[in-house]
Amino acid sequence: MKTVLLAALLASAPRLAWPAPPADQPWTLEASNWQDGKDLLPEPVLKHLQKGEYWFKVVPVDQKKFHDNYAKKFWDLTAANEGKYELDEATCGLKDKATGKNPDFVVGLPFPKVDPGDPQAACKIAWNFTFAGSGAGGGGATFTLNGIDSGGEFRRIKATMGYQGRLDGKLKENPENLEGQGVTAALEPQDVEGFSALTKRYWDWDSQDAIWAYVPQTRRARRVNAATRSEPVQGLDIFADDLNCYGGKVEYYKWKLVGQGNILAPVVQPYPFQMKQVNASRYMVETPYEKAGYEVPGSKGAPWWIHDNLVFVQRPVWIVEGQSSDPYYNFGKVIMYFDREMYRIYWKLVHNRAGEYFYTAACGYHFVKNDETFSAVFPSLVIGVNDKINRAAIGGRYQSSFIERHWDPSYFSLRTLTHMSD
After folding, report:
1. For the segment 78-101, what is each residue's pLDDT rounded down to a tens digit?
2. pTM of the predicted model, to two decimals?
3. DSSP for residue 283
4. Considering all CA atoms of the chain, what is the largest pairwise distance in Å, rounded to the nearest integer?
């Protein structure tokens, strides 16, 4: 009887309310107030927060201004896409309703409105993600990859050229029928200098990406399977598929919408950086370096956690499950958190093919915009954390990048690949 009475008293007692964080002021989420983040972070990330290994500098954001990080031209083109496109049932490929075929050219979000009750909603979300990041048309940067525990630090250069999604319009020539192409090369340290790769993504529903890797010791470029995106880059705890939190074709995955929510989204700053024109087609963008704990003497927390020049804004997200249809792909289920308006992936949780969780990637971005005719969003960094072995890697963190609106397509060739270290 006493036990029942005590339980009743406890149930009826007033509960202490945890003070809500200010909505219009910057605040810090840390171990002492971790409850404020329990619905704003993926579970593996929340565990690091509770242990004091992570903390989050949360800044308020004006929702209208954040929406306007993309130029008015982008949003106008998005609105004009209403009803134009549908999906190929077998492949999740994007289809022009008028022709029943792959569209000739797409710019803006192909699906301005996504109904969560639509059985194809997740695939439409994935396509919106693809075109939200395609507006710049091309560019490049020199970035670092840092293995935090192993000390394996090296630099890579990446250059990209897009054919679809360009805000400045369709290119006159696309003889290979590409969605986009890119070149990456390792510059340092000396033992990896000259390693490079060329990727060509074909604009169709069925083709695999064509990827060639060049090894300077053999002086030979060889074709590799697209599934190599799920292999560690140079043995570090980071993967080629971590760029933007997903780097493959939409058609490679089976997509499933599993929920909605809110998340803390990593950005260098909430609003756009300016770009500076340096010649007729090239624009430079200066960004600050994101310093991690291992670079700060006497720092606390996880050595891979970012200390400077990264903030978090609260954003509404779609929660989507993806799984590759390629039997050689190393990942099993991947859970991704897509911005419901801006269509960037901020976090992803990776499971192995046995269904066991082992890895989280945090993907931070910055926006670029000078006027209402042109804008872009770029990946600034990826923090890849292998929770099975408590080790991590950081990629990106470049201090300058460029937008190139008129690449010479011949740059993206095997000849360039084999001469990168000349």
Report:
1. 999 999 999 999 999 999 999 999
2. 0.92
3. E
4. 86
Distance CA 331, CA 318 (A): 21
CA angle 409, 128, 81 (to 5 degrees): 90
For residue 288, CA distances in Å to 207, 273, 322 come to 38, 11, 33
Query: What does the DSSP 8-state code read for residue 308?
Result: S
State the number of CA atoms in the 13 A half-sphere of 174 facing the CB. Answer: 19
3-state SS class at 408: coil
Residue 266, strand partner residues: 312
d(CA 255, CA 345): 14
Class of domain 131-418: mainly beta
DSSP 8-state assignment for residue 239: B
Residues 163-210: tens digit of each pLDDT: 999 999 999 899 999 999 999 988 887 777 878 899 999 999 999 999
Segments of the chain assigned to CATH 2.50.20.10: 131-418
Distant-in-sequence contacts of 112-121, Cβ < 8 A, 24+ apart: 112/78, 112/79, 112/81, 112/82, 113/82, 114/318, 116/257, 116/260, 116/318, 120/87, 120/92, 121/257, 121/318
Structure confidence by residue, pLDDT tens digits, 356-371: 999 999 999 999 999 9
